[in-house]
């Protein structure tokens, strides 16, 4: 579920970037798009940190299982 939300946010960020690249935007509209984009960037960053944390926990859990069973 979190990955779908992240993909949706990333897609919206791409759309915002494309809109901001166009020259026909009013300054006020551009500012609103920019603010929305910055908010989405912060949310995506937090989402990625959460996902990274979960992956690290999974990897660390698997490593500790293997460490006990492998002889060197």
TrEMBL record:
GO terms for biological process: DNA catabolic process. Residues 3-30 form a coiled coil. It comes from the Bacteria. It is an enzyme of class 3 (hydrolase). It catalyses: Exonucleolytic cleavage in either 5'- to 3'- or 3'- to 5'-direction to yield nucleoside 5'-phosphates. It is found in: Cytoplasm. Its main location: cytoplasm. The keyword Flavoprotein does not apply. One of its GO terms (cellular component) is cytoplasm. InterPro entries: Exonuc_VII_S, Exonuc_VII_ssu_sf. One of its GO terms (molecular function) is exodeoxyribonuclease VII activity. Keywords: Coiled coil, Cytoplasm, Exonuclease, Hydrolase, Nuclease. Its EC number is 3.1.11.6. Bidirectionally degrades single-stranded DNA into large acid-insoluble oligonucleotides, which are then degraded further into small acid-soluble oligonucleotides. Belongs to the XseB family. Heterooligomer composed of large and small subunits. This is Exodeoxyribonuclease 7 small subunit. The lineage of its organism: Bacteria, Bacillati, Bacillota, Clostridia, Eubacteriales. The gene is xseB.
């Amino acid at each position: 579920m979190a990955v779908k939300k992240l993909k949706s946010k990333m897609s919206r960020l791409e759309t915002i970037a494309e809109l901001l690249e166009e020259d026909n935007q009013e300054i006020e509209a551009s500012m609103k798009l920019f603010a929305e984009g910055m908010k989405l960037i912060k949310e995506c960053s937090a989402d990625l940190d959460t996902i990274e944390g979960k992956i690290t926990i999974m990897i660390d859990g698997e490593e500790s299982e293997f460490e006990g069973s492998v002889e060197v």
